[in-house]
Amino acid sequence: MTRLRAAALCALVVTVAAAAGAAADESADLALRTRMWAIAERLDCPVCQGQSVRDSNAQLAAQMRAIILIRLQAGESEDQIMQFFADRYGPGVLREPPREGLALGVWLGPLVVVGFGVVLVAAVLARGRRRAAMPGGDLAAYEQIVDDLRRPRRGG
Questions:
Q1: Which residues of 45-76 are buried (b: 16+ CB within 10 A; e: fewer)?
Q2: What tens digit of pLDDT does each residue of 35-85 get?
Q3: Alpha carbon distances (Å) from 26 to 57, 64, 94
């Protein structure tokens, strides 16, 4: 009977260890898949208009998700994977353009336009205030011109 108990106890330990190992594998796989979906959200599908690799059902997007997963399993960082796709498909595949070089204009352009608009509005408002502040009694020069125009011309 002791052999039977020992065998049952051994079988129970092996079963629990196998289940724990499978749960650990599933947990690691779930973490990798979560990271893969996050990276896929940051990439535009090259064949779909305005869809991320995460949202696209295109075959290319599915292949890109598989590549992301393989590269994550190989130990590559998110930045390395993003750079891989940018090198392969161009920087347009990145949903957020890099903040360097010509792509910096995408980030700074709107700020420059808004700044110019603020300066323009301030200039128009300042001009309006200056006109409102002009004294109303300083019309003698204009009255003189009107009087000169009303007088009949002599000689001519």
A1: bbeeeeebbbebeeeebeebbebbbebbeeee
A2: 999 999 999 888 888 888 998 889 999 999 999 999 999 999 999 999 999
A3: 25, 22, 30
